Amino acid sequence: MASNESSDNKKLSDGTIFGIGNPLLDIIAEVPVSFLESYNLKSNDAILAGEAHKGLNESLLRDYPHHQFVAGGATQNSMRTATWLLQQPHVCVYMGCVGQDKYHQLLHDAASKSGLLLSYQICENSEERIQTGTCAVLINGNNRSLVANLGAANHFTIDHLDDPNNKQLMENAKIFYTAGFFYTVCPAAVMRICEHADKNNKLFCTNLSAPFISEFFGDKLMKAMPYVDYLFGNDSEVTSFNKHQLKLDTEDIKEIVKAISELPKKNSQRKRVVIITQGSEPTILAIAGDNIKEFPVKKPMEIVDTNGAGDTFVGGFLAYLALDKTLEEAIQAGAYCAYECIQQSGCTFPDKPNFDPAKFV
């Protein structure tokens, strides 16, 4: 596959970047307001599916033939993004838990088509048929209503990492990434990966992901923090992290980000790097012991959908980290991927990337 015209991308080994998270099949469809009303949904919202939403997915598949399937979930989005930017199938390996159902097959097909090397754990709970996680992305005009059902994604177990094939995938990887959402599912697996990365001098990267993670799963996040080489997040997540974990007497984002970069770290040979996006405001880079840097954000003429912008930023950044590029170039790569993503519906991209770090600012 051709690499970017504008960069000298070297060929990376298969499975260089290893992602673990909550796999969701995104089912994207344009729907009328009446459809939203029938399920009591707001036109711009993100919720977890409840009893009232039974049958919603089936109704989408039946009544809206123009629906599309995208391999979703935060970490899987980031892995797809890195693969797209690098134009190197199988450079990213991804695992998470799925059910034994048609959604699993649809998800597997969509993720494989995106070039991911997959090692899904299949939830074989015979008593209750646990379905593959889904997220209905209901588009109405410029609004997006998300209805997520984590399903099998909630059932990942650490023994999946004991499988000899998966052990080998861990051995082959150089960069590990999980979004904050996975701390709610299997923190033991996160710690196993942290320890492997530490012992083998590999990179462990993670994400604050949502304000509720720092509030309700902050202890799990703090247990991993000494192993974190690269931490991603946005301004509202940083504020929540400070409120519930750091408890500094400040609301200054830069001060908080600097303090996070300087939290105790196991591998002192490598300084922790913290990258915080703020929508269209400048992206903040903090490296432990260094001065804060800021990077202006390039805004497209038209924004279609900001859903997935954070995930795609991470994917672009990790791709350039894998290529041993500078932090500045990795931030531009992340910003470029987010820039392309927000001009599309759902977490998707144009056919081919067209990125030149020298020109994209």
UniProtKB/TrEMBL annotation:
Top-rank taxon, per record: Eukaryota
Cofactor: Mg(2+)
InterPro entries xrefs: Adenokinase, Carboh/pur_kinase_PfkB_CS, PfkB_dom, Ribokinase-like
GO cellular component: cytosol; nucleus
Pathway given in the UniProt record: Purine metabolism; AMP biosynthesis via salvage pathway; AMP from adenosine: step 1/1
A biological process from GO: purine ribonucleoside salvage
SUPFAM superfamilies with a match to the protein in the record: Ribokinase-like (SSF53613)
Recorded GO MF terms: adenosine kinase activity; ATP binding
Active-site residues annotated for this sequence: 311 (proton acceptor)
Enzyme nomenclature, EC number: 2.7.1.20
Compartment(s) where it occurs, according to its Swiss-Prot or TrEMBL record: Nucleus
Annotated PROSITE patterns: PFKB_KINASES_2
Keywords: ATP-binding, Kinase, Magnesium, Nucleotide-binding, Nucleus, Purine salvage, Transferase
Cofactor binding notes: Binds 3 Mg(2+) ions per subunit.
Gene3D superfamilies linked to this entry: 3.30.1110.10, 3.40.1190.20
Nucleotide-binding recorded as keyword: yes
Predominant subcellular localization, coarse grouping: nucleus
Domain Carbohydrate kinase PfkB: 38-350
Reaction equations catalysed: adenosine + ATP = AMP + ADP + H(+)
Subunit-level organization: Monomer.
Protein role: ATP dependent phosphorylation of adenosine and other related nucleoside analogs to monophosphate derivatives.
Family assignment from sequence similarity: Belongs to the carbohydrate kinase PfkB family.
Identification of the protein by name: Adenosine kinase
Organism name: Rotaria sordida
Classification lineage: Eukaryota, Metazoa, Spiralia, Gnathifera, Rotifera
